[in-house]
Amino acid sequence: MIPQADRPRRVAILKPCCIGDCVMALPAIDALRAALPNASIDVYVGDHSRVVFGFRPDIQTISVPDSFGAAAAFDLTTKLRRKRYDAVINLDRSRWLRVAARMSLAPITVAPESRDYENRHESEVYLDVVRQIGIPVTTTVPSITPSEPSMRQADLILEQLQFPFAVLHPGGAQNPGAQMVDKRWPVEHYSQLAGVIQDHGVGIILSGGFGDIDVARTVAGNAGLAEESNLAGKVGLDVLSGVLSRAVVYVGPDTGVSHIAAAVGTPTIAIFGPTNPSRYRPLGHDVQVLASPGSWSVPERDLRKSNSCSIGPKTDEISVESVVAAALSVLGRITGISACKA
């Protein structure tokens, strides 16, 4: 543990992108806050992912680009020097962020250690960064509590919808500079899943961002869902976190909303294919990962600027029957619905 006299009073955390990665960074940030209760903590994050750190009202966020090159790193260095931080903690592997942190003139600078391929969860990588400066780890599982205003807005949306309900996320896998639709489970599979869940007396809500409107509309049409059941492009992640916290089960791919669902405590079924669940699965107390055996050994790749991750297993290797079985198991445990009706 850092001696009292040496504890940083002004801390910068570098984590520009993306939503799922920022959720996975929350345990490291919580450890810092617990160890440094009187420090001011600024998180440098892109606008796309900034909402994640809004769930931590005791830290400040400062807007930066979602990805970095030389010019952006120079601008960030200037900002960091002006703020005169005692510590700059880089939770990103970007070489340009490493440069900016080193040139910040902060007495303490740390970043993820460069290692050969390892099958550790990304959250553990971030926790190791804060461990480097003697910060004890208080939790390894991200936790999100929706704000009261978000819960009020969520409950207003849900007033006209069926309870209990499941949330399906048929889109996702879109980040600034990268759209990896290979991560998505096929639309027709979601349509079949929605039909089975509805046959068991459970409502369906579709989630998604602006880029998911078309795919969500297709699932809604195939499953005969009312317009108000499709929230794609209609609510932000803050309000969606409230909706998710009311759901009996969530089903989605390797994408940021899946991490938020798990972090609010909703039973989560995450479908993986070309990315490795060992590194990137949502962490929570009620999470099931459905992935082909080959997914668990997919090597580390930088997908931040990729529009395809097509090498490796496909999500369509995960059958509708297996996801239905997982969903009905959760529904049976929570609502008493019998899976034998399938």
Output mean pLDDT: 92
Structural class: alpha/beta
* Rg, Cα atoms, Å: 20 Å
Strand order of the largest sheet: 3-2-1-4-5
* Beta-strand proportion: 5-15%
Count of strand segments: 12
What's the SSE pattern? EHEHEHEHEHHEEEHEHHEHEHEH
Segments where pLDDT lies below 50 for 5+ residues?
none
Measured as a percent range, the helix fraction is 25-40%
Query: Helix count?
Result: 12
Using the alpha-carbon principal axes, give the shape.
globular
First-to-last CA distance: 54 Å
Largest sheet: 5 strands, parallel
Report on this structure.
37% of the residues lie in helices and 14% in strands. The protein has 342 residues and is of the alpha/beta class. The strands form 3 sheets. A 5-stranded parallel β-sheet has the order 3-2-1-4-5, with helices on one face. A 5-stranded parallel β-sheet has the order 9-6-10-11-12, with helices on both faces. Strands 7-8 form a two-stranded antiparallel sheet. Strand 2 (40-45), helix 2 and strand 3 form a beta-alpha-beta unit. The longest helix has 17 residues, at 19-35. The relative contact order is 0.13. The mean pLDDT is 92.
